[in-house]
């Protein structure tokens, strides 16, 4: 439990948070576009946009966190 491990954990956490934020923003835009394009009826638009936003945020956060974790293991 050295300083390097804490630093790596902080970087991975920041990567997941940043990935979630970017993925959520992209998911919201894409979900809105899809809902309008495919003429999703009524309140199902809100559900569709929400599902797309959360799904995109989770996937992008996972991959950015994994990439950050891989980078933490490398020593230059």
Q: What sequence of helices (H) and strands (E) makes up the elements?
A: HH
**Helix coverage percent of residues?**
over 70%
SS-based class: mainly alpha
Instruction: Count helical runs.
Output: 2
Task: Tell me the overall shape.
Answer: rod-shaped
Biggest sheet overview:
none
As a percent range, the share of strand residues is: under 5%
Tell me the radius of gyration: 17 Å
What is the mean predicted local confidence, pLDDT? 92
Q: In angstroms, what separates the terminal alpha carbons? A: 21 Å
Task: Show unreliable segments.
Answer: none
Instruction: Please give the number of β-strands.
Output: 0
What do these coordinates show?
The chain is mainly α and 76 residues long. It is 86% helix and 0% strand. The protein has helices at 3-37, 44-73. Helix 1 (3-37) runs antiparallel to helix 2 (44-73). The model has no long low-confidence stretch (mean pLDDT 92).
């Amino acid at each position: 439990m050295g300083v390097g491990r804490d630093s790596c954990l902080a970087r991975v956490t920041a990567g997941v948070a940043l990935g979630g934020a970017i993925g959520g923003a992209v998911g919201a835009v894409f979900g809105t576009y899809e809902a309008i394009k495919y003429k999703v009826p009524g309140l199902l638009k809100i559900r569709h946009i929400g599902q797309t936003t959360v799904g995109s945020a989770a996937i992008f956060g996972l991959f950015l966190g994994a990439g950050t974790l891989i980078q933490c293991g490398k020593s230059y």
